[in-house]
Write a structure and sequence with these properties.
single chain; about 0% strand; mainly alpha; elongated; about 575 residues; 22 helices
Length: about 575
């Protein structure tokens, strides 16, 4: 009976005290969750109150902390939930106020700094993964926990290497300070295979030359991969044999490799001009000088030096040949294959045979006889023109002058399209890849998109600074970028979202993270965490009906960031 009386007494006391609870007006917990009839002093072993049901669950080290450490007063709602309120910022405000980005309630020790770094402005790849933090964050020498904001361009940290490099001399050569144009961030050194020159492998003789030799005037966009574009002077000056005099192909790779000194070289195309490795002349000579008797000029040759002893026999064999003359040039004109059969040199006609025409059967062009055969490409290749679907030449309106885009090489490749700008102008960075069609078309010239996002979806999706997907940026790349490069870029924050470069917010912030505190989602923002403190804001909104101290309410009532034009203001009645 006495125990029942005590319970009734506790209930009565609680009902009387609740209206004047020292825990604040909003505290609505049952006294018995924490207190007993024995007194107001709390026995933690008998405590039935579950702190996890509040906005701040106790995990990790917080489970061991004395309640008074966080609750300075009996009004429990006065206790803040952000780390910085209880914990001193030992980083001197250099990494923001979101301790949870790096730390957990279990410990201050950070064991995944590399993964955390990937979410920042400078993901760690290549040699940066193993680099000591002190190498970049030099301010750590003053305080082991001070991480000053650093530049993210290579040159910001590696200026000394740029200035000190002599092979090649970057300063004298006026090389770009954008290190990524030549070097790979994923590598562990600056040289050798780690140079991004995969489009033109630097092997043998090309491996040791200075970049400026091929890229004069610091122009890295117009250099051609064709040998003759750099070696035309070598071609013109060569006299043994005289390349220009003989009419050798300017495709150096037909005979040469990239070995220094142009040696060894192999002229495998000799049989195309005149067969000496096959036919009746195969095995009948030992050195080039036997036929090319004029030293230094391989454009001259002699047939009669070998056949001089047979002139009489040769004369007899040509008794009925009109215009016969016993000289080397006549021999070659009538016997371009070195054989007694036949007697016509197509290359001496108005239509020299080059490329795929060399191996084409005569009937392929002369099905109706030899007289009157046209020399214009379209006359023979009209069907090829009409049947081509990649791209459809008729639909696109490509000219029938085949030689405008094609050479006589087999399979119509490689091909150029000098009128590309009439269909899609190649400007800025696109102009630098004008001769590398595969980059955009990948051998499909029919369905190539002409919108930026069509080709650059990966760039959009993989960009994390800022995260375009999370921020819900427009897929119209030209809204912020130009065709020259992705940077510098413009972003109309004021016009599209919220004025931060004008109005009262101009000059009131330093970095995007001041407002966008979630680095993985720029659609999330805060007005209250860093700038607009609650006390002063509450006073400014005295008399404003429906006022709530949260970021969404701030934006809903002040979409332009101005204090004028507040919504739902109530006028106080006059007394």
């Amino acid at each position: 009976m006495r125990k029942l009386s005590s319970i009734i007494l506790l209930v009565v006391l609680c009902s009387n005290v609740f209206a004047q609870s020292p825990h604040g007006k909003e505290f609505n917990k049952n006294c018995s969750d924490c207190h007993t009839t024995e007194g107001w002093k709390i026995d933690l072993k008998k405590l039935s109150f579950n702190h996890d049901q509040t906005q701040f669950a106790l995990v990790g080290q917080h489970q061991q902390v004395n309640c008074r450490s966080c609750h300075k007063s009996l009004v429990f709602t006065d206790a803040e939930t952000d780390c910085i309120t209880c914990h001193t910022d030992i980083h001197y405000q250099t990494v923001g106020f979101e301790c949870g980005r790096c730390h957990t309630p279990k410990s201050w020790i950070v064991e995944n700094i590399t993964e955390i770094h990937q979410l920042g402005r400078f993901p760690l790849v290549g040699a940066h993964v193993t680099t000591d933090c002190y190498d970049c964050h030099t301010s750590l020498s003053e305080s082991l926990l001070r991480f000053e904001l650093l530049g993210v361009e290579c040159y910001d940290c590696h200026k000394d290497k740029y200035l000190a490099t002599t092979q090649p001399d970057h300063v004298q050569g006026n090389y770009s300070t954008n290190c990524e144009e030549c070097h790979l961030m994923t590598s562990f050194d600056w040289t050798g295979a780690n140079l991004n020159h995969s489009f033109f492998p630097l092997t043998a003789g090309h491996a040791s030359i200075d970049c400026i030799t091929c890229h004069p005037g610091n122009d890295y966009s117009s250099a051609s991969v064709e040998c003759v574009s750099c070696h035309q002077p070598d071609y013109n000056a060569t006299t043994n044999p005289n390349h220009a005099g003989i009419g050798f192909s300017t495709n150096c790779s037909e005979c040469h490799t990239t070995s220094p000194g142009w040696k060894p070289a192999e002229y495998t195309e000799h049989d195309v001009l005149f067969p000496i490795y096959s036919g009746k002349h195969n095995g009948e000579w030992n050195t080039c000088a036997e036929c090319h008797t004029t030293t230094g000029n391989y454009g001259l040759f002699s047939c009669i030096d070998c056949h001089e002893h047979n002139q009489g026999e040769t004369d007899d064999q040509h008794n009925e040949v009109g215009g016969y003359s016993y000289n080397s040039l006549a021999c070659y004109e009538c016997h371009p294959t070195g054989s007694g059969e036949g007697g016509f040199n197509h290359n001496a006609s108005d239509f020299p045979l080059t490329g795929a025409h060399i191996t084409t059967e005569c009937n392929g062009c002369h099905a109706s006889g030899f007289a009157g055969t046209p020399t214009i490409c379209f006359a023979c290749h009209e069907n090829d023109f009409n049947q081509t679907a990649n791209p459809n030449h008729n639909t696109v309106g490509i000219a029938t002058d085949c030689e405008t885009c094609h050479s006589t090489d087999p399979e119509w490749k490689p091909a150029l399209f000098p009128n590309h700008n009439e269909t899609y102008p190649l400007l800025g960075a696109h102009a630098t890849i004008a001769t590398n069609c595969f980059t955009c078309h990948e051998d499909n010239y029919v369905n190539t998109p002409n919108l930026c996002y069509g080709c650059h979806a990966d760039n959009y999706n993989q960009t994390i600074d800022p995260n375009h997907i999370a921020a819900q940026f427009s897929m119209s790349c030209e809204t912020c970028h130009n065709e020259n490069a992705w940077t510098p870029a413009t972003f109309d924050h004021d016009g599209q979202f919220f004025p931060v470069y004008s109005g009262k917010h101009e000059g009131e912030w330093d970095v995007c993270s001041d407002c966008h505190t979630n680095p993985g989602n720029y659609a999330v923002y805060t007005c209250t965490s860093n700038c607009h403190q609650q006390g002063e804001t509450d006073q400014d909104h005295d008399g404003v009906g429906g006022y709530s101290y949260n970021s969404e309410a701030c934006f809903e009532c002040h979409p332009n960031g101005e204090s004028e034009g507040k919504m739902f203001r109530l006028t106080k009645p006059k007394i």
